[in-house]
Design goal:
single chain; 352 residues; alpha/beta; Rossmann fold; 2 domains; seven-stranded mixed sheet; 12 helices; 47% helix
Amino acid sequence: MFTLLRRGLHFLILAALLQFFSPFLQAQANRAPSGALKIGFLMDSLKVERWQSELDRFQKRAAELGAEVLVRTAEGDDDLQFGQAQELLAAGVKALVLVPHDAGKAVRIVTAAKAKQVPVLCYERLVRDPDVSFFIGVDASAIGELQASSLSQRAPRGNYVLIGGSPSDINAKILHDAQMKVLQPLVDRGDIKIVSDTWSKDWDPAEAYAHMSAALETTKGDIVAVVASNDGTAGGAIQALEEHKLAGKVFVSGQDADLAAIIRILSGTQTMTVYRPLGSQATLAADAAVTLAKGDAVKTTAGIPVENSNIPGIFMALVAVTKENVRRTVIKDGFQNLDTIEKSLPKDKWPK
């Protein structure tokens, strides 16, 4: 009898211990295996919706490949990002994925990685240094051309506002140059006039709102199109347009296919956004980072000439998303959720 009671007591104690430690054990099981390849991921910021989504996809794929991802976010601080790079290199990462805040200042990160013989994969923003091992992203000039051409086809005459991204982001400058490549012939002919051309520090929608408000005051609302370089700056511009009762009457571009932008497109206040399969981009980046971490070369035929070298890379396809193709693009790809969109809009605005 005593033996049975003792066994029962042992069972209850064991069950209690298992219940207590179960969350810990599950968390341990979900972690990358001991001795896994370490990959460092240096983010500029997670403030924009797309970046957290892409980071999640990257981490998920890396875990499937048996790699552990060490993430650091600099929130726009170049010195902090450099310090984080040194920290990750000291922690023994075998590859470094980099989204630089300032691509020029980030050259020192590439130099530090080279000293440790750690390959650097530039994600979305290229550090123009021949020691970069790989690039994955899009052709920023193609985005700018798509934005400007989409609006100029709809508004071939009138006053234009250009709202650029962060002046420290090389992609923002490439976008602007590409937008002007499309618009300059129209300017030269006198068909359109650029009444405001500004930058938005760190892609801040509040700065875009201020720039748009000033342009509206200067022109007394006589504006036909706003070439906004991403969806955040588009949102800031549209807020100012709404306050002047011009939302939906002025053509506005964007980029990233954020949920808020898709809702604005279906509502009629934003004209288009540039979309590329960001989930696929993050997954491909994880594949490439793991390959580089193992000391192997990533197979690709694409590349970017930098100085006397050619940086291999993968370029994602681009799609102009309008209210006519929302369902066939971002919803079909699973990038945005149909139920969430429909809950945010009246039925007559639902994607067709």
